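User: Run a structure prediction on this.
Assistant: Running it now.
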Amino acid sequence: MSFHRIAETIFTLVMLLFLAVMVLGILVAISLVQQLQDLKVGFTWQIVFMTGMGLVFFFIVRMIVEKIRDYHRFSNN
């Protein structure tokens, strides 16, 4: 098995992991909104909490995308 095939397999696994992180983040956000409603948290605090969580989630996703771009930058040479 060539190095290129191994690298492509690893990249495919990373992309599947990225998809899993996206789906998991959406499901966690939905369940947190429901839990915050059950705890009688005010709407303003729900928005503040979900905004903070969303920013952290998008920061993690952005880091993953940057790593994927670095992989493509170095693999095309």
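The chain has a mean pLDDT of 83.
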